[in-house]
Write a structure and sequence with these properties.
Layout lengths: L5 E5 L3 E8 L2 E4 L9 E2 L1 E5 L2 E4 L1 H9 L4 E3 L10 E4 L2 E4 H20 L5 E6 L5 H13 L3 E7 H13 L3 E8 L4 E9 L2 E10 L4 H16 L8 H17 L4 E3 L3 E2 L5 E2 L2 E3 L1 H7 L1 H5 L2 H10 L9 E5 L6 H11 L3 E2 L7 H13 L9 E6 L3 E7 L2 E9 L3 E3 L1 E8 L7 E8 L9 E9 L8 E8 L5 E7 L19 H12 L2 E2 L5 H16 L2 H19 L3 H19 L1
The chain binds adenosine-5'-triphosphate and magnesium ion.
């Protein structure tokens, strides 16, 4: 079996997969011939739908459809799809499995090894769960690469221009900033910062809030279906926004008059998005300061992620960075291209064998300790933006003769108090044979995938020398893994050749719900005629009907 170099960008809103072919990365099309697959999963009559077929059902069947779950990976949050519960990791597995099938169809061979991109600011648990999500569907995530690093890699390989760059990656759900330097084939990430809860979705949600305010609605009392309709109108308006915005969402105003939608000027949008835009500032400033780079010394700002297309985001970035950003490579696929370059680099493909790339650990990792009599203080063992792979050791001491066991609590973050940071794991060690002030060495090793190993050495006590954090996700036992695997295996998936038909039908049903009057009547006719074509079970006839209806829709609705 041939080993392909394959990269996957598992995105909050879209995912993609690419393969290294010849001497360059090639994006792989899905069953619709598209390179971006919406990260949406829906449950339909015993079958699981992924991508666009599921995306349309967000509006027609909101109870059976889920999206934006990548944000919740590692949190234990459960989503209900019809009568089944899924956690975010399992939903990511379903998306990965769909990408795997697309690649296998394209290559006509099974694939097993992939490089998967993750937000730079993803924590240890989230990274481990992405790895596990891949394992569950028979993919070995041989490497996790930070999304902005992947984008930087793609730019470097495509453009080969030395200098200092700031990668500004605003996707659907995460914001990452990296300061990267290129010199003669060497790519060095100097610092990364970010916010795991900031992305294009937040700009849409701000619009949803204002629509609810104007229409007198409330999130709690508005039906799920109605909420999806508002969301859809806001998302469309956001993507098409230039100088002013019209959110096409009809409602009856307080004077009893029907309005077709709501208009917002650029200045009004400045106010609506002010708080969300403000959140871009801190990661930008922190990454520059950690890299010890003045904004004047940045040669270029590279825009990555679909939300970097939003004019207000660009305006804010320009204001904060005193220069315009570049969009030379497609901001929605550049991460996938970079992950594929990393995969090819790993397999030592000739075109990129001379490349050298270094990355950093974007956050500090340490333990809770007592410092000068004050307990619960965060004591960093590895400081943020240390070059990886790395291994650092810090010495601590037992406190009392009478201690029989101590617990080393590991945290990630930058806050003074350990409890204000993200708790990663507790490791208890036996110190019953130690007197007070007995030295304990805590070693943190952080690998290129961003995964942490901890060794604890009770000095001079060979019988209890070290304890290593298991690299399996914390809190997920074998039983749960087995259960997940069985649940995923039992899911029924439509044959690939049926997917374009299902997508078209789901789109027609979404349009039927959205339209009224004559427009709705025409959609009704299209649904009936397509159902008739499907009932013939004649694939040539069905393909012809699908093409014809798709062309009609393209004329009227795109
Ligand atoms: N023209 C546009 N104008 C404004 N926003 C856009 C535009 N096109 C796409 N977006 C927004 O970009 C976001 C999706 O970007 P992208 O596909 O890069 O994210 P992702 O990779 O799925 O997410 P993440 O990287 O955070 O996991 C969505 O919020 C979408 O609304
Ligand atoms: Mg992305």
């Amino acid at each position: 079996m041939k080993t392909y170099a394959i990269g996957i960008d598992l995105g909050t809103t879209h995912s993609s997969i690419a393969v290294w072919q010849g001497d360059r990365p090639t994006l792989i099309p899905n069953a619709l011939g598209e390179y971006l697959t919406p990260s949406v999963v829906s449950y339909d009559d015993g079958h699981i739908l992924v991508g666009k077929a599921a995306y349309y059902r967000k509006y027609t069947h909101p109870r059976n459809t889920v999206s934006v779950f990548k944000r919740a990976i590692g949190s234990g949050k459960e989503y209900r799809l019809a009568d089944k519960n899924f956690n975010a990791r399992e939903l990511c597995s379903i998306v990965l499995s769909s990408l795997k099938k697309d690649a296998e169809n394209y290559l006509d061979e099974e694939i097993t090894e992939v490089v998967v991109s993750v937000p730079a600011y993803f924590n240890d648990q989230q990274r481990k769960e992405v790895g596990l999500a891949a394992t569950m569907v028979g993919l070995n995530a041989v490497r996790l690469i930070n999304e902005p690093t992947a984008a930087a890699l793609a730019y470097n390989v495509e453009q080969k221009k030395d200098g200092q760059y700031l990668v500004f990656d605003l996707g659907g759900g995460t914001f990452d900033v990296s300061i990267v330097e290129y010199t003669a084939g060497i790519i060095e990430v100097h610092a990364s910062s970010g916010n795991n809860r900031l992305g294009g979705e937040d700009f849409t949600e701000d619009l949803v809030d204002i629509v609810l305010e104007r229409t007198g609605g409330e999130r709690e009392t508005t039906t799920l279906r109605e909420m999806q309709a508002i969301y859809s109108a806001c998302e469309e308006a956001k993507k098409n926004y230039r100088k002013s915005m019209f959110i096409e969402y009809g409602f009856t105003n307080q004077h009893g008059q029907y309005e077709e939608g709501i208009f917002f000027s650029e200045v009004e949008l400045d106010t609506i998005w002010r708080n969300t835009l403000k959140k871009l500032k801190q990661p930008l400033e922190q990454s520059l300061s950690d890299a010890n780079v003045n904004v004047r010394d940045i040669d270029d700002v590279i825009f990555v992620g679909g939300a970097s297309r939003l004019p207000h985001v660009q305006k804010m970035a320009t204001r904060l960075l005193s220069r315009f950003g570049r969009h030379d490579l497609d901001p929605e696929t550049v991460v996938c291209i970079g992950a594929t370059i990393q995969a090819a680099y790993r397999l030592r493909h000739k075109a990129i064998e001379d490349l050298v790339i270094t990355d950093v650990c974007p956050y500090s990792l340490g333990v809770a300790a007592e410092v000068n009599g004050q307990s619960g203080v965060f004591s960093p063992v590895l400081e943020r933006n240390t070059i990886v792979p790395t291994s650092r050791v810090q010495r601590y001491c037992t406190k009392y003769d009478t201690d029989s066991e101590i617990v080393i609590s590991i945290f990630q973050g930058e806050s003074f108090w350990a409890k204000d940071n993200i708790h990663i794991e507790d490791i208890s060690i036996d110190v019953s044979t130690c007197a007070a002030n007995h030295p304990i060495d805590v070693r943190f090793s952080y690998d290129v995938n961003g995964l942490l190993d901890v060794n604890i050495d009770v000095v001079d006590k060979p019988q209890q020398v070290e304890k290593t954090i298991d690299t399996s996700p914390t809190g997920i036992g074998e039983g749960e893994i087995k259960e997940s695997r069985e649940k995923l295996k039992a899911l029924k998936i439509h044959p690939r050749e049926k997917i374009p038909n299902i997508v078209l039908l789901n789109r027609l049903h979404k349009l039927y719900e959205e339209t009224l009057g004559q427009a709705r009547k025409s959609i009704e006719m299209l649904i009936i005629s397509f159902e008739e074509a499907l009932s013939t079970q004649d694939s040539r006839h069905i393909d012809k009907a699908r093409q014809h209806i798709s062309e009609m829709l393209a004329e009227q609705y795109e």
